[in-house]
Amino acid sequence: MAAQSEIAGIQALCFDVFGTVVDWRASLIAEAEALGARKGVAADWARLVDAWRAGYQPAMDRVRSGELPWTPLDALHRMTLDRLLAEHGIAGLDEADRAALNLGWHRLRPWPDAVPGLTRLKRKYIIATLSNGNVRLLVDMAKWAGLPWDTVLSAELVQRYKPDPATYRAAITFLGMGDPGAVMMVAAHNGDLAHARSHGMKTAFVPRPAEYGPQQSRDLRPEHDFTIIARDFEDLAAQLGA
Predict the structure, then answer these.
(1) Which of 35, 57, 100, 116 to pair with 3, CA 20 to 30 A apart?
(2) Under a CB-based contact definition with an 8 Å cutoff, are residues 149 and 163 in contact?
(3) What is the spatial distance between Cα 50 and Cα 53, in angstroms, rounded to a whole number?
(4) Would you identify the CATH topology of the domain 4-21+111-239?
(5) Does residue 126 contact residue 151 with C-beta atoms inside 8 Å?
(6) Fold match between 4-21+111-239 and 24-107?
(7) Domain-by-domain residue ranges, the chain?
(8) d(Cα 219, Cα 169) in Å, to the nearest integer?
(9) What are the start-end ranges of the E strands in 122-236?
(10) What is the CATH number of domain 24-107?
(11) Consecutive sets of 10 residues in the chain, 242 residues long: mean pLDDT of each?
């Protein structure tokens, strides 16, 4: 439990989204399996989805390095999907099928505690995304999953992917906070929180031990001295007095 002095000045919470708020893995596997059933295409869809997510950071690295110009995450996801379908020998999906599957990232299901926890937190704090997802993706996801954001902050707004300092600094500025400590970053990922903390933000670690499936070995526990360690969003709300 964080000391009251550490949380007294917090006015806004920024949330990582993929894995922290929504269950991308189970959602995308279900989308892919349903598409495969409709099209009569058999594949190891869980393996494809895991490879798709594994391509997330390498795709953004191509933008970070300047190999690619600024490219929204939707387009990066589609580039990775097309490559993986070929590599995995999955045929029989036309352009409309591929586009629909790529839009599965817009229809990710929230973890069970996400909506009730966010609803509680919203009563006391500004709640916002701080995600590498592009704006339309995040807006569509919010409408689909009933996520009650006050505002959507995206790497797209500054055309820099986390953990570029510009993403965290922009969130603090967009929220009108002169003091970075008035903003708390909430994530299930140690690295994201460590970067946020380095820019003066408060931090809350919420573990999602099923994010990467039954064999998950990363981010099972906090690896730094974060402001709050919470079981889930309901516990986070309780610790923050919401």
Answers:
(1) 116
(2) no
(3) 5
(4) Rossmann fold (3.40.50)
(5) yes
(6) no
(7) 4-21+111-239, 24-107
(8) 24
(9) 126-131, 151-154, 183-187, 202-205, 228-229
(10) 1.10.150.240
(11) 80 98 98 96 96 97 97 98 97 96 98 98 98 98 98 98 97 96 98 98 98 94 96 98 95
